[in-house]
Design brief:
- The chain is an alpha+beta fold.
- It folds into three domains: about 160 residues, no CATH class; about 70 residues, Single alpha-helices involved in coiled-coils or other helix-helix interfaces; about 120 residues, 2-Layer Sandwich (Heat Shock Protein 90).
- It is about 60% helix and about 10% strand.
- It has a five-stranded mixed β-sheet with strand order 3-4-5-7-6. Strands 1-2 form a two-stranded antiparallel sheet.
- Helix 6 runs antiparallel to helix 7 and helix 9 runs parallel beside helix 10.
């Protein structure tokens, strides 16, 4: 008797469901493949690409070095070497891109040459050539390309052989070889040291200083145009009308002269305020103690000023300190609701320290829109520091630190 759970087509489970099977005789077997992960394949691609990249770099470096060395006796030798080093920089940049894409190595870009991107573009041709010839980034890139030639051949041969002969252990071989590549990229193609990184920061800070100076010039121009200049124009017109009425209506002329006198006083006050915003005379004549006391007297909260300085710093540092305190006291008047405040200034070794305290509502932040972010940028541009401690509810303590430079 035939088993009801069987048929000529094969075994059946109850209710007609087929038994599980990895494949049926009519289906093809899955193709064989390497069970490598995506990162392993990227590393293999990097090692196989080492040979063409290394060959191109080696030919470039040896050609330009021998050619420029041969031509150093002529006028074009050093310019050619400078151009070659700039080209080596670009080769290094290409290798950093390749390492980021295939090896997942994140390497910072070195600082650009000082005359690139509009920086120091007024330097003479020979000065720029000499700066390029001394470029450590270009020389390290050339050294990298020279080392890469034998290494590129070795990694290409080992990887290609491993794909056909030693593929079970190839991921371990590949990881070891690419780790050497990672070390070379980080050692020779990354920013060389803290000095180079500091140069890049200072180049960026210089842009902040230029932008700040341009903004200050626009502010001064606007204040002159809208303030004192407009009042002086009205004054001239008023005196002209008074002159015409002097004989016809002396009383009206006298009234016009009185109004003109008032305009003169207002114009003088606006000019004094503007001059104080540029560089107050009291700061130049008497120093930070007197200048900060004058600023503190205009604050809405009582301010205790303590300046403990035996000598005066350089005029530029003194000016930055004055305007920093002035801006912070204005913020106290406008935003803090403080009932008292204090300003302390002292010297610690080669640094000028400023601390401004108030018992207001607190909550001050660098991105709070009260000009504090601009102060932090200005101090950073001269290698200074700016620290805020301002919990909600207060009190607020802001510490600024500037380099001490002798007058």
């Amino acid at each position: 008797m035939t088993d009801p759970l069987s048929s000529s087509t094969g075994s059946r489970r109850p209710y007609g469901r087929p038994l599980p099977s990895s494949h049926t005789p009519s289906e093809p077997l899955p193709p064989a493949r390497f069970a490598f992960g995506g990162q392993t394949w990227r590393e293999i691609a990097h090692l196989l690409a080492n040979l063409p990249f290394a060959l191109f770099g080696f030919v470039y470096v040896t050609t330009v070095l021998f050619t420029s060395a041969f031509l150093t006796l002529t006028v074009i030798g050093f310019p050619l070497l400078a151009a070659a080093l700039m080209g080596a920089r670009q080769l290094g940049r290409l290798e950093r891109i390749r390492a980021r894409a295939l090896l997942r190595v994140r390497v910072d870009e070195p600082s650009p040459l000082p005359f690139r991107g509009g920086r120091r573009a007024d330097e003479g041709f020979f000065t720029q050539v000499w700066m390029s010839v001394k470029d450590p980034v270009g020389w390290r890139s050339m050294l990298y390309e020279l080392i890469r030639m034998p290494w590129g051949i070795a990694t290409f041969v080992i990887t290609l052989t491993g794909l056909f002969v030693a593929w079970p252990v190839l991921p371990y071989i590949v990881r070891g070889l690419t780790n050497v590549d990672r070390v070379m990229v980080r050692s020779l193609l990354s920013p060389s040291d803290e000095l180079e990184r500091r140069i890049a920061e200072l180049e960026s800070d210089r842009g902040v200083v230029v932008d700040t100076a341009a903004a200050d010039m626009r502010r001064i121009e606007r204040d002159l145009h809208d303030g004192a200049q407009a009042r002086l124009v009205n004054l001239a017109m008023g005196l002209g009308l008074a002159k015409e009425k002097l004989l016809e209506d002396p009383d009206a002329a006298a009234s016009m002269v009185e109004e003109a006198h008032g305009e003169v006083k207002l114009a003088l006050q606006e000019l004094r305020d503007l001059a104080r915003g540029i560089h107050p005379a009291v700061l130049t004549d008497r120093g930070l103690d007197a200048a900060l006391s004058s600023v503190a007297s205009r604050c809405t909260a009582p301010v205790k000023v303590t300046v403990d300085l035996v000598a005066r710093p350089a005029a530029a540092i003194e000016g930055i300190a004055y305007f920093t305190v002035s801006e912070l006291l204005q913020n106290i008047s406008k935003h803090s609701g403080a009932k008292s405040a204090a300003v302390d200034v002292w010297r610690s070794e080669d640094r000028l320290l400023i601390q401004v305290w108030d018992d207001g509502q607190g909550g001050a932040q660098l991105d709070g829109g009260t000009g504090i972010a601009g102060l932090a940028e200005r101090l950073d541009a001269v290698d200074g520091l700016f620290v805020i401690e301002s919990p909600v509810g207060g009190p607020t303590t802001i510490t600024a630190e500037l380099p001490w430079r002798e007058r």
